[in-house]
Request: fold
Amino acid sequence: MSKLNNKKNICILIITFIIFISLTFGFCKVGNKIVFKYTNNFKINGDEIKNTNDLYKLKNVRKLSLHDFETEKCRDFEYLLQMKYLEELAVTVDEDFTASSPLSVISKCENLKKIYCDGYNQHKIDNLLHFSDMNQLESIWLNFDYIESLDGLQLITSNLKDFHLLGKHSLSNLNFDSLENLEELYISVDLLQKIVVDIPHLKRLVVLSESIDELIISSNCMELETLNINFTDIDVDMLLNLKSLKKIYASKDSFTEDDLSRLQNKGIIVEYNE
Reply:
């Protein structure tokens, strides 16, 4: 009986020791969270953390989401350089993404494939030059009220497959002919008047801007399958020249009955946005 008790006590000691080691060396405190040090996926809100010092403890993160970070908390982004495996980054900050902003650090993340940047009201990004330093990027999502210029767009890696641009920008004309391997383009810009799209591998195009006067989609967009628009005066002849176009989402008054008939005869399905 005593031998049985001894074995039981030894087992309890071993388990206690393992738990102690795990808690001591396997976990850490980040803000008000207890986190496994080697976690691959981490998300935290600004109200859960006082500063970013604790983020230096996480070095194996592949997917990081930082939401509602106020200015004093987001000045330091150097901890990102400790995350050698970081592939996806989502940042919602109370700070402009200008040349001297977090972008100068984020651009040094060599393995970054997806980036989502969202600013609060009135926040801006000055250009896209920093994104041209990220050679592995496959997806960019930018949601800022102001973008001063699209300088750097033509320099972004050919790996880019997905580009989203949203906000209340003063950009009136957009020309996309340099992102030759892009498969999805999503544009929702309030003051946009004209957009030119000439991307051979594009499969999905979304243009949501009621101010737009002219949309030009080159016949070189031979792989375009889905189009989503919310404005009128669409050139139906242009759409009929898109060989792979299968589905259009549009406003109810975007097409006349004759337009709808021509599109349907080509095998293109039209559905109305609510």
